[in-house]
Amino acid sequence: MAGLEVVGVTKVFGAERSGVTALAPIDLKVKQNEFVCILGPSGCGKSTLLNIVAGFVTPSAGHVLLEGEPVLGPGADRGVVFQEHALFPWLTVAANIEFGLRMRGVDHRERASVVERYVKLMGLAGFESRYPKDLSGGMKQRVAIARAMANEPQILLMDEPFGALDAQTRALMQAELTRVWLETRKTVLFVTHSIEESILLADRVVAMSARPGTIKEIVSVPMPRPRDDTSPEFNSLKRALTDLLRTEIKKATEMFAVVEGVA
User: Fold this and answer.
1) 95 and 118 co-located in one domain
2) Within a domain: residue 202?
3) Which residues contact 160 (CB under 8 A, 6 or more apart)?
4) 45 domain residue, yes or no
5) At what angle do helices 108-121 and 137-150 cross, to 10 degrees?
6) Rounded to an integer, what distance in angstroms lies between the CA atom of residue 90 and that of residue 132?
7) Rounded CA separation 225/35 (Å)
């Protein structure tokens, strides 16, 4: 199965000679039904890489293939969930979930069936007629995930979707996403700056360097789901990833200090 292939992708913002190199050459493969987390310090190009896969940003060099087809722009084959839920405030939960289907001309009966499925899957029963303003942060992200999945994309791209949530809600949503993934086995590429979150969720963790972002190491997470964050295996992997990223976080911090005139 082809899955996702990122081949020699680089990104320079600004003029080629004087611009900022966000990504050095990146090569990455994500298999079908795999959950991969991209982990790294702030400013390392994690979101830039995700946006290139989503088709929102054009790489300066290299290319992306999804199921063997080149990614040339946004498409329904990629569902995207952002840190901010980006729901349409004038639409109900059900209308938000079916929005992409409606835009594609899917008939009413099929839309209703899909909405029913994802309302149930995401624990949104009873909220179908509510508007985003009536929902908590966690509920809004449930709707955002349901909307992205309703189009049956080949891959789900998630850019720190729980980053704006409080700690308790974030833990709940991590558990919910694990449950949903176990039920659907959707291919997922998930950006995070949290080592704990990456271990809880991923089959593999892609650890990135400070800018310009490169892949420093790819670490497998062999533990069965759901995962116990108090287990010796979990904490051993947490220590290994912390050691792996310590130098990169220091570099990133020093880089920001220079930019801000602190150093």
Assistant:
1) yes
2) yes
3) 47, 83, 191, 192, 193
4) yes
5) 140
6) 8
7) 12
Task: With CA atoms as reference, report the closest residue to 210 among 26, 77, 40, 16.
Answer: 40
Are both 101 and 179 inside the same structural domain?
A: no
How many structural domains is the chain composed of?
Answer: 2
Please give the helix or strand (H or E) that residue 78 lies within, else none: strand 78-81
Q: How far apart are CA 256 and CA 259, in angstroms?
A: 5
CA dihedral 119, 121, 122, 124 (to 10 degrees): 40
**Residues 27 and 68 grouped into a single domain:** yes
Q: What is the pLDDT of residues 12-59, one digit of tens each?
A: 998 766 688 999 999 999 999 999 999 998 888 999 999 999 999 999
80: tokens are 């995207």
* Alpha carbon distances (Å) from 128 to 40, 106, 146, 196: 37, 19, 12, 32
- Assess whether 159 and 232 both reside in one domain: yes
Q: The whole model's pTM is what?
A: 0.92
